[in-house]
Design brief:
Layout lengths: L1 H42 L5 H23 L3 H11 L9 H27 L2 H9 L4 H31 L11 H12 L2 H30 L1 H7 L1
Helix pairs in contact: 1-4, 1-7, 1-8, 2-4, 3-4, 4-6, 5-6, 6-8, 7-8
Length: about 230
């Protein structure tokens, strides 16, 4: 048993470093950019006048449909549509690119709701006070609203990132040789599926535990100024 674990461990770690971790980090980064833009569009109500307002409302409707669609369908189905479905209309993507698009869009939809809720949680008086001091809307967002919203959004976004790391195992279904698929390949060779699946589960658990520790550290750091103010 120990020999099987030690012999398979390098392949699993290599798959983690080559696919699981990069796919998680890049998808989360892109997803957060999407989430932030979507949250702003769905939260702000700029005055564009009679001409721009209908276009803004159409944009918000499209954005709302995107969020609804990705939050209402399974991630696995989304990956299959992107990788196996799009080629039927002439769009063929490499497995890693397809997974990156699927995970990023899914994370953007879920993350946007978290960020939107965090933005709405900031007291409206903060906006009014900033406008009174002569700050524009972008300046108010950057200097006052976003820092407070990020502190509120940090715990749920961290949880979503940890969930994304585990969800990367679904990339095996579109032929990406990440950790789970590699464990399946090794299990097919040594006929020890239970041992291999327990081993890959342990690696996921270790990785997510490290992320949990980092999450608690970031939450503690982000709350330091509040404790200082209270003192």
């Amino acid at each position: 048993m120990l020999e099987i674990i030690t012999s398979s461990l390098p392949s699993l770690l290599s798959a983690m470093l080559k696919f699981t971790i990069p796919l998680s980090l890049i998808s989360f980064a892109i997803g957060m950019v999407i989430a932030f833009l979507v949250a702003l569009i769905r939260t702000l109500n700029p005055n564009f006048g009679p001409v721009g307002k209908p276009l803004w409302l159409i944009l918000r409707a499209v954005i709302s449909f995107y969020v609804w669609a990705f939050r209402s369908t399974p991630l696995l189905v989304q990956l299959f549509i992107i990788f196996f479905g799009l080629p039927s209309v002439g769009i063929k993507l490499a497995p890693f690119v397809a997974a990156l698009i699927g995970f990023s869009l899914n994370m953007g939809a879920y993350g946007s709701e978290t960020i939107r809720a965090a933005l709405l949680s900031v007291n409206q008086e903060q906006w009014e006070a900033a406008y009174t001091l002569g700050f524009s809307t972008p300046q108010t967002l950057w200097h006052f609203i976003i820092p407070q919203a990020l502190r509120t959004a940090l715990p749920p976004l961290s949880n979503e990132f940890i969930g994304l790391v585990k969800d990367t195992s679904l990339a095996s279904t579109i032929t990406i040789a990440e950790m789970f698929q590699v464990s399946q390949q090794i299990a097919a060779q040594n006929f020890e599926p239970l041992l291999m699946y327990v081993e890959v589960a342990a690696l996921y658990a270790i990785l997510c535990s490290i992320l949990n520790v980092l999450q608690h550290y970031l939450e503690k750091r982000s709350s330091q100024y509040l404790k200082g103010a209270a003192d």
